[in-house]
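I hope you will forgive my troubling you with a question about protein structure. I should value your view on which stretches of the chain appear to form regular backbone elements. Here, with my thanks, is the record as I have it:
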Amino acid sequence: MLQNQNKMNINDVLRYYVLWTDIESVFVKNREDLHFFRNYLNYMKVIRNFKSNSSKSILEKAANFNVQNSENLVQNFSNILNESGLLNNKINRALVASSKILWLFNQDIIIMDNFNILELKRLNYKITEGSYDDYCLAWNKEYEKCLPDIQNICSQLKNSPIESELFQKNWFQKRIFDMFLWNTHYQNNRINKNDD
C-alpha cells in the first residue's frame, strides 16, 4: 500500500489545490482556446507525441469527442489521433497523451502517466504495456486504499477560508491522489539517484 511508505498529509492536498487554482483551472476554463490548449500540451509534456503544427487539429478532435457516453474513451481517442495522422512518426498510439487531453474536457477521466505506471509497478501491480484498463484497475485499487486519508484531510478543510467545497468533489480527490502518486515516484526516484 502506498501510504505505508509515504503517508498522505495536508501538504499533499494543499499542493494540488495550489496547482489547480494557479494552473490547471485556467487550462480547463480556457480549454477551447488554441493558445491555452497548446500551453496545456506543453505543461502535460505530451506535445512531443504529435506532429508539428497539429495543436489546432488535436483541439478540434478533442472538442468534438463525446467524453460522456463512450466506452474505451482513451483508446478510442488515441485511435482517432492516429487515424487522423496527428501522431508523430515514431508512435501509433498515445494513451498517456489522450488521457491528459480528455481530462481537460472531463475531469472524471483518470490521467495515465508514466511516473504513475512506474510507481504502481513498484507497488507490485501488473500493468501490461499499452493497457489503459490495467492501469486504471491498479490506479483505482491504490486510490481506494488512500481514499480514507484523502477524505479525512479534505474534511478538515471544510471550514477553511479557501474553496472548501472543491475538496469534497470526487474528481478533485482523485486528482489529489494522482499527483500524490506522481510525486511519490518522483521523490523515490530522486532519493535513489542520490544514493548512487
